[in-house]
Amino acid sequence: MLSSAGRRAFAALARPTLRSDVAFAFRPSPAALRRLLSALAVLEQRDGKLNAGSLSAVTAAKQLGGSVHGFIAGSNIKAVAEEAAKIEGVEKIIAVDNPAYDKGLPENYAPLLVENIKKGGYTHVVAGTTAFGKNVMPRVAALLDSQQISDITAVQDDKTFVRPIYAGNAIATVESTDAVKVITVRGTAFPAAAVGSGSAAVEEGVDPKADSPTEWVSEDLAKSDRPDLATASRVVSGGRGLKSKEDFDRIMLPLADALGAAVGASRAAVDSGYADNSLQVGQTGKVVAPQLYVAVGISGAIQHLAGMKDSKVIAAINKDAEAPIFQVADVGLVGDLFEKVPELTEKLKKAQA
Ligand code: FAD
């Protein structure tokens, strides 16, 4: 690992040097980069299962060019740490076994992560743009006096990153000179790192056992046997056009079943109580990029598009031929959803029979 003096020397070396009107950009060789850069990928786990968003974070961490370690914490962590050790391209897993870290409470988790970042002398810390990442990483950045680089969609080099801004209407390229770069990664922009052939060593991390005033009380989870919205290859989403919760369930759930799809919703549908807010797709909901996205009774507001416009194929059903959703749709059906969707569902079921 690099000392802080070493990191400063490297930063000075890597910075472009301007002489008269000619810029010389010194880039260390890949071998030198591997020695100078080290990334800690934060691995989320829930009930002993690795989160897919964390595996995308590992892929982004690998693209930085240095060594990659994984960090995992929670109770009975041994089994999931051993699973994490099989992630391809990860050299070491730092594991902390303590139930205080099970739910990823930022007040507990951020000081833990910071202690381990400092101990390992990492140049980068990378997590998914998940609820956990959005909750914990800003606090980590503040504790490290770094400016967080949020929701990146590409790594240009070890200090330059691409991220969408203004709900995806502009793309910013940002460069960070912070000693420790704190990064969150858009899961749909990086494939999940493969788990299987890796053989990382598992090492016990430091546990500051911070005396936090915050404790986990309970959670109320919406349970579903359907595919997970964030990672499903097919998503069917309903909007305000569904008119009621009863109609949302009556129209959308059989369509989802016929397609083997996850169910999503617009914010208007969520705010009207038609769907649970964990199903919201968009700027303030989940960002999805499935193979197929079917938008039913959704107008296509910019904030909704921010969460689904990178889907491979977009199909839209709307009675208004001028609805903006048709501008991003590959396939459009203008008509009354209460007629068209049950008809489509029947046809899909027949085709599968
Ligand atoms: P509407 O815009 O009301 O559209 C309903 C559509 O249904 C219409 O196009 C209509 O033609 C069609 N329709 C009605 N009846 C039928 C029928 N019988 N058959 C066929 N079609 C029919 N929105 C999100 O979705 N996700 C977000 O994350 C999000 N974040 C936001 C963040 C901010 C800061 C703000 C300001 C807004 C955000 N919004 C978000 C809200 C967004 O601006 C829109 O209000 C919302 O997306 C509209 O949802 P909708 O398309 O379901 O409803």
TrEMBL record:
Heterodimer of an alpha and a beta subunit. GO terms for biological process: fatty acid beta-oxidation using acyl-CoA dehydrogenase. The lineage of its organism: Eukaryota, Fungi, Dikarya, Ascomycota, Pezizomycotina. Its main location: mitochondrion. Belongs to the ETF alpha-subunit/FixB family. Its cofactor is FAD. PANTHER family: ELECTRON TRANSFER FLAVOPROTEIN ALPHA, ELECTRON TRANSFER FLAVOPROTEIN SUBUNIT ALPHA, MITOCHONDRIAL. SUPFAM superfamilies: Adenine nucleotide alpha hydrolases-like, DHS-like NAD/FAD-binding domain. It is found in: Mitochondrion matrix. Keywords: Electron transport, FAD, Flavoprotein, Mitochondrion, Transport. The keyword Chloroplast does not apply. Residues 39-220 form the Electron transfer flavoprotein alpha/beta-subunit N-terminal domain. GO terms for molecular function: electron transfer activity; flavin adenine dinucleotide binding. Binds 1 FAD per dimer. GO terms for cellular component: mitochondrial matrix. Signal peptide: none annotated. This is Probable electron transfer flavoprotein subunit alpha. Pfam families: ETF (PF01012), ETF_alpha (PF00766). InterPro entries: DHS-like_NAD/FAD-binding_dom, ETF_a/b_N, ETF_a/FixB, ETF_alpha_N, ETF_asu_C, ETF_asu_C_CS, Rossmann-like_a/b/a_fold. FAD binds at residues 240, 266-267, 280-284, 297-304, 318. The keyword Ion transport does not apply.
